[in-house]
């Protein structure tokens, strides 16, 4: 600066004016140097780095580039130049250095924030991220980093040691506990959820209390986002998954079978013992032919061995139309291509009720997709409702207007004949 000032004085410029011009020239020179360094960093260094990242075999560095970690880091270069030349302005050196330190702390916080986001993106690319999400932990790290950054900013502004501010935080612990209550609860809940493998991103859960019934799309420190089947989004606090009960359907998806548990209600007045004519008719049904033959042989052998008098149909053993129908359903399910044969498959009678005798189908489809499951279940019951009359059975139904009209027409027909 003395060299420039002496040169200006030698040109005939007054000393006071030469001092101001010297400062102006130095400021312009430093500004030009910062602009050139910034241009060189962003247009040359970052482009070369981007080209290398896009053309290497690693994938993790692409996430750093997408989150602009290197772009944010490049802002440090002009600050370092200004900091290095701050000695040229001794009257303002301390203020310049303080301002540069504040700026670099802010840039450092932005770089750390972007870096942690990139770490989450890198981790999310692995399958384990669904079972062990780390977003909550990264958010806790961000909180601590920003707290430390805020302490450094304040200590730099007031010119005191950060340890003095840290010593005063103990008095504010109660306030901090109140402010960060949800974050602390969320952190504890996140650790428990992860360690016990209770939920994962992509799990289907039900929480009727909060109107949640769908897939988890995001697990963060404070909230869990659930996309319901009607495409609405339900957001619940993370710690409610620990404090309240919920149903997780992951086991069903992992097992590869979805339970079908539904009943056919049979009118009990249509249940009868099978006549020889009915048995001959049932033998024409493919699934029942061998069963009927074996069953007749078994019953006949029982009657001979126990000297049963069959002049009365009540004596001994006999097949009933509902028993044959139940066996038909069992065999039908065992041959169905959409029923999981490695899981429980049975047809059972339940306690008779005022709507008839329930025949419950308890089986699992081998496709857990909701639409496929509903289609398979509907096809099976469509078939059963249609074939029940072939066994002399009536499916129970409360009287409808059509039933009343049929009864009225029948009564009018009988009167006309009388």
UniProtKB/TrEMBL annotation:
Tagged with keyword Transcription regulation: no
GO terms under cellular component: plasma membrane
Residues that span the membrane, as ranges: 20-40, 76-94, 100-119, 140-158, 164-180
Keyword rRNA-binding carried by entry: no
Domain Mechanosensitive ion channel MscS, residue spans: 182-250
InterPro entries with a match to the protein in the record: LSM_dom_sf, MscS_beta-dom_sf, MscS_channel_2nd, YbdG
Location(s) in or outside the cell: Cell inner membrane
Domain of life: Bacteria
Molecular function GO terms recorded: mechanosensitive monoatomic ion channel activity
Gene Ontology annotations of biological process type: cellular response to osmotic stress
Keywords: Cell inner membrane, Cell membrane, Membrane, Stress response, Transmembrane, Transmembrane helix
Membrane topology per record: Multi-pass membrane protein
Pfam families to which the protein is assigned, alphabetical: MS_channel_2nd
Protein name: Mechanosensing system component YbdG
């Amino acid at each position: 600066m003395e060299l420039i000032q002496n040169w200006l004085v030698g040109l005939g410029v007054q000393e006071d004016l030469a001092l101001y011009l010297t400062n102006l020239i130095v400021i312009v020179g430093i500004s030009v140097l910062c602009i050139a360094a910034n241009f060189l960093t962003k247009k040359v260094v970052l482009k070369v780095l981007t080209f290398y990242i896009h053309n290497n075999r690693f994938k993790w560095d692409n996430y750093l580039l997408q989150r602009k970690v290197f772009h944010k880091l490049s802002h440090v270069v002009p600050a370092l130049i200004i900091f290095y030349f701050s000695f040229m302005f001794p009257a303002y050196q301390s203020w310049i250095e303080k301002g540069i330190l504040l700026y670099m702390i802010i840039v450092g916080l932005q770089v750390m924030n972007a870096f942690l986001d990139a770490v989450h993106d890198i981790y999310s690319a692995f399958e384990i991220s669904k079972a062990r999400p780390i977003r909550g932990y990264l958010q806790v790290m961000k909180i601590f980093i920003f707290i430390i950054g805020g302490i450094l900013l304040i200590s730099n502004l007031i010119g005191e040691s950060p340890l003095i501010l840290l010593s005063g935080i103990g008095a504010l612990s109660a306030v901090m506990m109140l402010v960060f209550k949800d974050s602390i609860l969320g952190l504890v809940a996140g650790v428990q959820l992860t360690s016990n493998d209770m939920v994962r991103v992509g799990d289907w859960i039900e929480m009727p209390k909060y109107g949640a019934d769908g897939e988890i799309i995001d697990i963060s420190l404070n909230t869990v986002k659930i996309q319901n089947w009607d495409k609405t989004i339900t957001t619940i606090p993370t710690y409610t998954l620990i404090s309240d009960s919920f149903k997780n359907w992951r086991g069903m998806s992992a097992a590869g079978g979805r339970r079908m548990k539904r009943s056919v209600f049979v009118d009990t007045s249509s249940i009868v013992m099978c006549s020889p004519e009915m048995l001959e008719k049932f033998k024409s049904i493919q699934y029942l032919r061998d069963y009927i033959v074996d069953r007749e042989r078994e019953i006949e052998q029982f009657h001979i061995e126990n000297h049963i008098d069959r002049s009365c149909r009540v004596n001994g053993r006999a097949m009933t139309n509902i028993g044959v129908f139940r066996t038909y359903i069992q065999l039908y399910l065992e041959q169905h291509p959409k029923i999981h044969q490695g899981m429980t498959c049975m047809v059972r009678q339940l306690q008779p009720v005022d709507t008839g005798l329930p025949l419950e189908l308890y089986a699992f489809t081998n496709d857990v997709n909701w639409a496929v499951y509903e289609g398979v279940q509907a096809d099976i019951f469509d078939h059963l409702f249609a074939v029940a009359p072939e066994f002399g059975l009536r499916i129970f139904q409360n009287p409808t207007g059509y039933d009343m009209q049929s009864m009225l027409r029948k009564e009018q027909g009988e009167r006309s004949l009388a």
